Amino acid sequence: MVMRTEARVSVSSGQSVVGNKASSHRLTQDQRSHIESASQLLAGGIAGAFSKTCTAPLSRLTILFQVQGMHTNAAALKKPSILHEASRILNEEGLKAFWKGNLVTIAHRLPYSSVNFYTYEHYKKFLYMVTGMENHRESISSNVFVHFVAGGLAGITAASATYPLDLVRTRLAAQTKVIYYTGIWHTLRTISTDEGILGLYKGLGTTLVGVGPSIAISFSAYESLRSYWMSNRPHDSPVVVSLACGSLSGIASSTATFPLDLVRRRKQLEGIGGRAVVYKTGLFGTLKRIIKTEGVRGLYRGILPEYYKVVPGVGICFMTYETLKLYFMDLSSKL
Predict the structure, then answer these.
(1) Residue 226, CA atoms < 13 Å, CB-side half-sphere
(2) Which of 77, 89, 187, 212 is surrounded by the most beta carbons within 10 Å?
């Protein structure tokens, strides 16, 4: 009887130990999952902010060129000159002016890029699962489809979540001689007072129409190029591969969606300082008016500094993200 009791106690405590180990294992897995999520958010945020800071001068030049035709007679418009405009900014506003609005850019990019990269990874996993393509990851067509859709959904999610900061950034960067907004909070308050709360979302529809395809093309082109490169040259530096593939994907994305981005910028500046509304129609009406007053080339006003910006910018962003993600994964594996 004593032996049986001891045996039961022994078995019971053995089960308890196993149960505790399993519980501990589950807890460890949960912790690793949380660490992985935090790593993706942190890596994405830092990558976006760092990339935007590096290319802020070119980003401001792009915005200034994009809005040139809003309140100016088309006949009076000069041929865009990057050097001339850069010299003007330097002489009239000083060196710091090249980073005008960069603080709000960082404030926008940290959450935007975090949400963008984080949701992209999760949309990708979800799409593989619901479409049954989990076992067909080697298929190029299924991969392109998943990356394209996941990228588009991630871009729309991130843009919707952080839009007011994007609007503030555009308005601060577009200011030249007349300073109407003095900072992030002043801009948010002024827009809310002058244009109502909905004024903070002016141009959101056009933004979502443009940002979905833009991020979709960017991510799908990047993933496809990177996969092709690594399969043919597996020993190349991951940093170099990310930089090169990111730059090429940025060019493809910007070329395809630049007219939509131009309309977005102009919509964001509508009504600034009580000025008259220029574009009273929707997306297609605005595109039609720009073509009529400025020609087809007007849709690509500012594309050159955009290319100069996007090649290093997107490349740096993907490179920084991949590098930080690997670093955080290596760090978490040692915990």
Answers:
(1) 25
(2) 187
Distance CA 249, CA 256 (A): 11
Among 253, 255, 247, CA closest to 299: 255
Q: How much is the pLDDT for 250?
A: 87
Res 238 pLDDT > 80: yes
Q: What is the pTM of this model?
A: 0.65
- CA gap 245, 218 in Å, rounded: 10
Lowest mean pLDDT segment, chosen from 12-21, 162-171, 217-226, 305-314 = 12-21
Residue pLDDT, tens place only, 146-180: 889 999 999 999 999 999 988 988 888 877 777 88
Of 331 and 123, more confident: 123
Q: Is the confidence at residue 311, as pLDDT, over 60?
A: yes
> Per-residue pLDDT averaged across 77-92, rounded?
79
Encode the chain in three state secondary structure: CHHHHHHHHHHHHHHHHHHHHHHHHHHHHHHHHHHHHHHHHHHHHHHHHHHHHHCHHHHHHHHHHHCCCCCCCHHHCCCCCHHHHHHHHHHHHCHHHHHCCHHHHHHHHHHHHHHHHHHHHHHHHHHHHHHCCHHHCCCHHHHHHHHHHHHHHHHHHHHHHHHHHHHHHHHHHHCCCCCCCCCHHHHHHHHHHHHCHHHHHCCHHHHHHHHHHHHHHHHHHHHHHHHHHHHHCCCCCHHHHHHHHHHHHHHHHHHHHHHHHHHHHHHHCCCHHHCCCCCCCCHHHHHHHHHHHHCHHHHHCCHHHHHHHHHHHHHHHHHHHHHHHHHHHHHHHCC
Closest of 277, 276, 260, 298 to residue 74, by C-alpha: 298
Q: What domains lie within the chain, and their CATH numbers?
A: 34-333 (1.50.40.10)
